[in-house]
Structures are given as C-alpha cells and as structure tokens.
Design a protein that fits this description.
The complex is a heterodimer of chains A (512) and B (112).
Chain A (H helix, E strand, L loop, with lengths): L6 H16 L6 H23 L5 E4 L14 E4 L1 H24 L6 H20 L3 H19 L5 H32 L4 H10 L4 H19 L7 H8 L2 H27 L4 H23 L4 H28 L4 H36 L10 H4 L1 H15 L5 H15 L3 H27 L15 H16 L8 H5 L1 H8 L3 H7 L1
Antiparallel strand pairs in A: 1-2
Helix pairs in contact in A: 1-2, 1-4, 2-3, 3-4, 3-10, 3-13, 3-18, 3-20, 4-5, 4-10, 5-6, 5-10, 6-8, 6-9, 7-21, 8-10, 9-10, 9-12, 10-12, 10-13, 11-12, 11-17, 12-13, 12-16, 12-17, 13-15, 13-16, 13-18, 13-20, 15-17, 15-18, 16-17
Chain B lengths: L1 H19 L3 H23 L21 H32 L13
The chains are: A mainly alpha (512), B mainly alpha (112).
Chain lengths: 512, 112
Amino acid sequence: MSTLVTLFVILPLATAFLIPVIGRVINGFQRTITALIFLFLSILSVYILINVNPHIYTYKIGGWEPVNGIPIAIYFVLDGLSTFMLVVINLIGAFAALYSIPYIKRFTAENNYYALLCLMVGGMNGVVLTGDLFNLYVFLEIAVIASYALVAFGVEREELEASFKYQILGGIASILILFGIGMLYWNTKSLNIADVSDILKNTENNKAYLVFTQVFLITGFGLKAALFPFHAWLPDAHSSAPAPVSTMLSGVLIKVVGIYSITRLFFNMFEISVEVSTIIIVLGVISMVFGVFLAVGQWDIKRLLAYHSNSQMGYVIIGLGMGMLILANNGSKPVAALSIFGGLFHLINHAVFKGLLFLNAGAIEFKTGTRNLKEMGGLSESMPLTYSTSLGASLAISGIPPFNGFFSKLIIILAAIKGHFYLLAFLAVLVSIITLASFMKFQKFSFFNKANLSPGRKINEVPFFMCFSMVALAILCLGLSLLIFPGVREIIIDPAVDVLMNTGSYFSAIME
Amino acid sequence: MTLYILCFTLFLVGIYGILTQRNMIKIIIGLSFMEFSVFLFLALIGYIEGGAAPILSKNFESGNFVDPLPQAMVLTAIVIALAANSMLLSMAVKLYRKYGTFDIRKISQLKG
C-alpha cells in the first residue's frame, strides 16, 4: 500500500514528460492521457479515503531506514489530512482536464498546456504527501512555476502582465519560505517535519529565534495563499488565466501551497501558540471582509470570482485559526474540533463551487467572447446548463440551504459562538450576506437582463465535455452537503480533523 | 557574525531594488540578489571554522567536518531559481515586444 502512495507524484510527472514526446506523434494523446491519469488518481485517492483512512502510511524514498532514531531518507507521509487534500486536488484536476478538452482547442501548443497541467498537479500532490521541509519547498516550486507559465498561456498583454506580477510576488514568497526553512535547519539540524517537531519540543529553544522563523514562514505561505495584505497578485492572475487553469489556481493551488502548508507546519511542527493563532485569525478576518467589499464593485466576472476566493479563504483560515487558538488556550476540545471541521469542510466546498463558477465564467467567455458583465445578458435561454449550474454554485457560495456552502458556514459560525468569538460570528454572517448580494448581481447581469451582445452573434450551449464537468461539479455541490451527517463525516473529514487535533502525535505516528 | 550581517545586507539590497526600481530587468536583478543572499546564508549554516570536506576515506580521522546537507540544498535551490529567473526574463522580453518599454509604470492594464 505504501508504495502506491508514490504513484500520486510519479504518474503526473511521468505524463508531463511523455506528453511533449508522444503527443507530437499521436494526435489526441495529450487530451486523453491527462484526463485519464487524473481520473485514475482521484479514484485511487477516494479509495484510500474510504477504505484505509485512519491508518498512516510512510514511504521512505530510497529505502533508507532511520539510524539511531535519526531519519535519513525523504519521507512521504499519507495521513488523514493528506488523503483529504489529495481527493480535493485530483478530483478538481480531473474535471478541469475534462473541461480543457474542448476549451483549449482554440489555443496553439496544446501539448505544452497539458504537460504544465500535469506538472502542477504532480507538484501539488508532492506538497501534500511530503514529510520533509526542503522537499516541500521543491514540490511547491514545481507547482507554482508551472502555474506561472499557465497564467501567461494566452501570451497577450494582460496575461503577461498578470504573470509578471505573480512571478515577482511568488518569487519573494519562495525566498522567504526557503529562508525560514534554512533558519529551522540551523536550529534543529533536521529537515524531517516529524523530527523537527520532536526536537523543538524536547530542547530548550530561544523564543525570539522561533518567532523570527515563524514570521518568515507565515509571510511566505501567506503570500502564496493570497491572504489580504499579500493578495495583490491574485485577482490579476486568476482572471487572466484560461478558465480551467483559474479553476485549478483558485480551487486548489492557493489551498495546497498556502493553507495546507500553514496548517501542517503550525499545527504539527511548531508547538501551537496563542500569538501565531491570533495572527492567523486576524489575517483571515481581514481577507474575509476586505475581499468581499472589493468583489462587490467588480464588473469583470473572473475578477469578481477571484476576489471572492480571497474572501472565502478567510472563512477557512478563521475556522482553522479558531481551532488553534482554543487548543492553545486549553479550551474545550469539542469546540476546537468543530471549528477545525468547519474550516476543512469549507475548504473542500470552496474547491467545488469556486471551481464550478470559474468553469461557468469560462463557458460564458467561450461563447460570448467577453468577461464584462455589462456586455452580456439574457444567457439563461441560450445556455440553460451553464445557467442552472452557475445558479447552484452561486447559491452554494452565498450560503443558501440545501447547498454545501450553507452547512460549512453554519458550522464555522456555530463554532465561533460556542468559542465566544461573537465579533467573528457577526462578521461571518455579514460577509455571507454581501456575498449573496454580489452573486445576485452576477446572475442578473449575465443571465437575466435583456441581451446586450453585439448583434448577429448566435449563442448556444457549450460542447459536451464542458457541460459534463459543470454538471458533475454542480451535483457535487449538492452531494457534499451529506458530509454534515454523522456516519459520512466520520469517514471523510474526521481523520483529517484528528491529525490537527492531536498536534503532538504526529511524531510518534510517523517515527514508530 | 560579520558574514551573516553582510548576507542580510544583500537581502535588504534585493528588497530595496524590487521596491524602488521601475525597470523590469532591474526588478529581476533585485530578486536574484535576494535569492543569492539566501543561498549564501544556507551555505554559511553548514560551514564550520576549520572544517574538512565531508568525505569518508580509508584513513578516516574523527574531526570537524562541514555539514554537506546545506550544500546539497543550495545546489537544488540554485537550479530552481535558474528556472524561475529564466521564466521571468522570457516574460520580460515578451512584455517588451508588446509594449516597447521595460517601464512597469507604462505596463498597467490590470486595475481594480
């Protein structure tokens, strides 16, 4: 079983290598193989999630066993949280790859597109699986460098400018992360996350030194996650990329390289502290509130959605941060568990509905050739499937029952009230209402108003594979509400919550 | 200690370059400054005063060895930075072909 874990990294990387070689000779190879590989990986990850989840698998690259308790090999670790993230990455990746089949045909250089997509997914799978700090940096760079290229894929003025901005800020973030990792290595002489956590716990540490390191790491990963003060690149990059890439960026990349890394390092590696969790909550609240206010005024669909990603990431961060703060204060464990559960639940929900919304925006742009809300209208008759799926996703993101977004927001708000964070609960409700308002604007101007398009343009429904991805994600939007029920919840999210709740047990689970 | 301070100065020079320069190529140079200051820092971590190269030979004597792991890390990081920098430079060249200038104040279509 533990050798199967490596497939998540090997398969996408090998495909990325094969596509430029074989795709040149066999036409259509690149399209089929990418979708098939991602589908296979998502089935595998769901299989692991359902059947063997509470168990932790480690795979030592090269087969080097630890000597005197000191780990030598690079570890791949598959625990509850990693499995959960793998499902998110590969599922959204599979739908994005299926959607790309008709969508990317209008671009040249299809081979490069699919190769870069595979690299990005391979890198993200690596980030989630690795148990080694420097390896985390390497996989993170694989994922983000592929995403720089994908953002600039259109090679027009806007795309290039957005990609340049993204690369400069992403480059600074990578440097800060590398510097933080260097500081940690200097202090502990180890790179294995579990080993570092053990060393930090059992030796006398200089507090100022640790805080200095933590500040660098939070800034670096915060830049990658586009938390509010570091968000400048996100709306440009996410709105300029081709639609399936926006789906991957907004739905998966910022979560994996930003939020997953922050959670893994600050829950499982550092000892949780009140200061860090307060910083995380404050960042989350600022991005939640400011993101939504910036989103309301947008007229470009994808820009509007990108600012909403910023705001919804705030919810996830708040859920996780509140759990951390309650744990650090030795508060009630069930409330902390509820809060972390809400955060993770909102993470998977956001991946699904924001992915779907970006696919809808792509479908609209595919047929009408514009992203400006003022230039479209009346699409509900000509594009019924796009209309109905995007209505579902809009209701989900604004938190209307019975869609999944309602339940995760409800849980986060409940946890905030139970943990006596009344201001947070109030802000979460307020932001949810403004989100609803801004999505009503999106629905009204794109689907209901009188058609405002340039005359003579015939609009009909998008090709089959694009519809298929959108409908499948819309069904998931409804289906994920089931995760709230006991029985389903224990299988899918609770193992991930347990990993974060038992912050100290990461070491013992991996090294023994 | 002087070495660490000089290393950090290099880091600050890089940040200053990124924040104040308006020319894309100069911004990229600033980013490289920051990268190389971190690489120097990583190499310094493993260095031990008077340490020997960490090679296990037949007439092995216990003594001071420099730490080889940061050196491996630096090599990997340099390769990654090379990829990222070449990507940035190619992007800058493409932008120059579209706009006819390297000045980032004139390349600002994305707002809001």
